[in-house]
Write a structure and sequence with these properties.
Largest sheet: 5 strands, mixed
CATH topology of the largest domain: Nucleotidyltransferase, domain 5
CATH class of the largest domain: Alpha Beta
CATH architecture of the largest domain: 2-Layer Sandwich
Length: about 250
């Protein structure tokens, strides 16, 4: 740690105090270039223990700035780190496919579909989270983030594995759009009394409890980037499915 006496951009000694950074250190701003800097910078190394902790905190209902304060990292570094984690989450979501088995077993293959409201930037920019869940294993077999039109429903259907499209019975609420997306022979629209979408509706609640971007009346909502909004949801689903796969037999 080497104390500075000049602006690192232009070498000027003409600077002023400019609040404090997230660690509490005095910040300064150059009056010539406008560059912000501290007089005693620290090149801190993020340890593996910190990275592992952050990976777990990203699965809990905690804001990004809250993670920065708890772990002692910068917001810019954290945004780069979570971007890497989101990109590594696989498209197959770690779904343990049931495969092709006997006709008796195929009749028991069931899935539940539902939608969850969210937004990016402001509440006028609605982004619906479409979820498809295996009713037996409780794994999330597909998801899509988009509008609540037939286009969004079709995008979800395209993400559902072929084995389910060909062999599963899909239970939904009575939202009329599903009738134009799911083949009639495989679609069952259930009422609140029948309650055939309990598991996926409960999972929607789990999402809101664990992803701060989805919490109602939150200040940690996705500000600008839809990709990060989708990435956070995908990251959680992958971890959720991994835990479910470990609990399944075989």
């Amino acid at each position: 740690m080497v104390p500075r006496e000049t602006c690192p951009q232009c070498g000027s000694r003409w600077y002023k105090r400019n609040g404090h950074i997230h660690t509490g250190k005095q910040n300064h701003r150059c009056k010539v270039w406008g560059r912000a800097f501290v007089l005693t910078p620290e090149n801190s190394v993020i340890t593996e223990e910190q990275r592992t902790l952050i990976e777990r905190l990203l699965l809990e209902s905690m804001s990004l700035r809250g993670i920065c304060r708890a772990v002692g990292v910068g917001l810019r570094w954290l945004l780069q780190f979570l971007g890497e984690q989101f990109r590594r989450a696989p498209d197959h979501l770690y779904v343990k496919s049931p495969g092709r088995t006997s006709a008796v077993i195929l009749q028991q293959l069931e899935a539940e579909l539902d939608e969850l409201w969210s937004f990016v930037g402001n509440k006028a920019n609605r982004q619906w989270v479409w979820i498809a869940m295996d009713a037996a294993t409780r794994q999330v077999i597909a998801f899509h983030v988009g509008d609540r039109s037939s286009q969004g429903g079709k995008a979800l259907w395209e993400q559902i594995p072929i084995v389910y499209q060909e062999q599963a019975t899909f239970y939904t609420d009575q939202y009329a759009l599903y009738t134009g997306v799911i083949p009639p022979a495989r679609h069952r629209a259930s009422t609140k009394l029948v309650r055939k979408t309990n598991y996926v509706e409960r999972f929607n609640c789990t999402l809101r409890q664990h992803i701060s971007r989805l919490v109602r009346a939150t200040m940690a909502f996705s500000k600008t980037h839809l990709a990060n909004h989708i990435g956070a949801i995908k990251y959680f689903i992958c971890d959720y499915n991994l835990a479910r796969s470990a609990a399944l037999p075989g």
